[in-house]
Amino acid sequence: MPAKSINVVPAEHGWALEIDGTSEPRQMFPTLEAAISAGWARARRENIELHIQPLAGGVRLRAESINPADVVG
Fold it and tell me: What pTM was computed for the model?
């Protein structure tokens, strides 16, 4: 089943990626930056949204954006 979106969420020790729409286990990362980088790379490859949960109400980055710093609220 293809992923619907990717969520960066706080974890007990660091940060995690949760892949919506799949039964994949969480991918763990030591820093928020590492989790965002890995999530952004996959979101671009699969043309899906990246949701960063700990930021003000959830922030989404769209894969079609040319600049990963572009934030869509």
Answer: 0.71
